Amino acid sequence: MLRSLTIRDFVIVDRLELEFGAGFGALTGETGAGKSILLDALGLALGGRGDATMVRAGCERAEVAAEFDAPDAEAFTCWLQEQGLGADDGGLILRRTIDAGGRSRGWINGSTVTLAQLRAAGEWLADIHGQHAHHALLRAEAQRALLDARASAGPLAAEVAGLHREWQRLARLHREAEADSAGSARERELLGWQLRELEELAFDAGEWDELNAEHSRLGHAAGLIEGADETLAALGEGDLALCSSLRHLGGRIAALAGYDPGLGDVRELLTAAAIQADEALHALRRYRDRLELDPLRLRAVEARIAAVLDTARKYRVAPHELPELQRQWQLRLETLEATADPARLAAAEAGARRAFEDAAGRLTAARQPAAQRLSAEITAAMQTLAMAGGRFEVALRPCEPTAHGLEVVEFQVAANAGQALHGMAKVASGGELSRIGLAIQVMVSRDSAVPTLIFDEVDVGIGGRVAEIVGTLLARLGRDRQVLCVTHLPQVAARADWQWRIAKLERGGETLSEVTPLDADGRIDEIARMLGGVKITATTREHAAEMLGRDASGRA
User: Fold this and answer.
1) Overall number of domains in the chain
2) Which residues in 80-186 belong to E strands, given as ranges?
3) Quick check: 285 and 233 in contact, CB under 8 A?
4) How remote is the C-alpha of 208 from its chain's centroid?
5) Which family would the database say this protein is a member of (predicted)?
6) Rounded to 5 degrees, what are φ and ψ at 180?
7) 286, 311, 339 — which closes off a domain?
């Protein structure tokens, strides 16, 4: 679960350090006080989008750090190991900064990570349902993704999409082969001739540097020999040779150092110089032994360079680009050869289609029972959400094969008894859509393995008895995992295990957001405010205490 959240200079938050509890927690306060800002900050730490507007005015950067208990899942542990990350004492700290220029950085347990890695980790840690999440359920792709997630068919859906792409690729090649067999033959012949020329040249990019280095050495061999001989003579021949002189001078200074220790540094320097000069002498002798004039080899190297340059000019590329050109031509030739036999391509296309249809059939088989279960569960939930007699159905309508399978997924609803089922976008009013969307989110979250569920004003558009039911649903979820909910409804907040009030305050001419954990009396006052507005009466407090299961003094 989420242990703590630390926020610095984020929108209207200057500094906040929050410790979270288990169960169901409610975040309440006036509109615009900054309730959703806290969730935006958490979303940023989880790899969400961020920009310079999130940095508090006048500050250099915004910083958010969220500490979680590491999920006890083998797959997550394996993922951490693959990324070179680890969980410290069973904890995981996700940190994110955004500077005033919009540049962003992320860390997991102190190690720098990409935003993709932050998002991947966040998918294991928390699931955020935004206040407009129910609108996304009107989109066909969102409905299909939700059903596939419920059916645990995400990998199979990805496999189906890949097989469909391969089938379509082979179908396109088949069509091209039948349409332009003569032109393809001419291009194959030209490519074959060009590739043979490059294969005979047998050139690779690494050889080019070696050829130029060898040519430089052979072309200047006379000067290299002369210079090496001259240096060898100066270092090692005669009484005045440098190596002998350094050894003699080193011995002389060593003797004098016996009288004056102040010469010790000079003695060490001369000794080191003598050793280095002697090493240089031996290295230069080995080099000189290998050095010789070789005009035949020089001509061979020059001929090789000329051949490479001529070929590169012919095909209008730099010499080092010839191997890449050869690779591209080879790939093109293989593609053309693959399209040279329409009958073979037709067989390959048919095989790819069978593979797709087999996987798509398995996807359909996985979707059908999941669709039935989800339909029954949402229909049952609608009966408690002031939609008695209403029905919900996940329809699977057969269609022509697509990358998404052999059927179109559509959420259909009948809001009242006796009505026919139609697509959600056509029949659901705003309030009905909110309630149905909330029911779907709660049902899907119930089956999720994510330890922290966050709902941001998902109860918009409901009230009264329905709000109490929503609060009960969220409280039930809170028995098994951590649930956080930003809400304006006292019926929902009253069902929470703990509650924070978020409010605006003025400090030094700035508007800032403040978070206050509420005790029993504080919760009564806050629920009363949510019930009665600005003026809180004794009756309002009594009603609030009753909702919380306490008397007006705060005693349970």
Assistant:
1) 2
2) 91-99, 104-108, 111-113, 126-129
3) no
4) 40
5) Belongs to the RecN family.
6) -140, 55
7) 339
Question: What's the pLDDT tens digit per position in 111-157?
Answer: 899 998 998 888 888 887 765 555 667 788 878 988 998 898 989 99
Output the CA–CA distances (angstroms, integers) from residue 166 to 163, 235, 350, in the order listed.
5, 71, 11
- Which DSSP string corresponds to 56-76? PTT-SEEEEEEEEEPP--HHH
**282 is a domain residue:** yes
528: domain range?
A: 519-555
How far apart are the C-alpha atoms of 545 and 535, rounded to whole Å? Answer: 16
pLDDT score of 555: 47
Which residues is 515 bridged to in the sheet? 502
Report the candidate in 58, 42, 514 with the shortest Cα–Cα distance to residue 50.
Answer: 42
- Which whole-number Å values give the CA distances from 52 to 102, 205, 534, in the listed order? 4, 45, 36
The whole-number average pLDDT for the span 160-182 is 83
The C-alpha R_g of the chain, in whole angstroms, comes to: 38
305 lies in some domain: yes
Residues 6+ apart with CB under 8 A from 464: 491
* Nearest-angstrom CA–CA distance, 124 and 77: 11
In a domain, 550, yes or no: yes
Q: Which of 318, 339, 360 is the last residue in one of the domains?
A: 339
Does residue 194 lie in a domain region? no
Angle at 375 between CA 374 and CA 377, to 5 degrees: 65
What is the residue whose two structure tokens read 């730099």?
A: 318
Q: How far apart are the first and last CA of the chain?
A: 28
Query: Within a 10 A sphere around the Cβ of 506, how many other Cβ atoms?
Result: 8
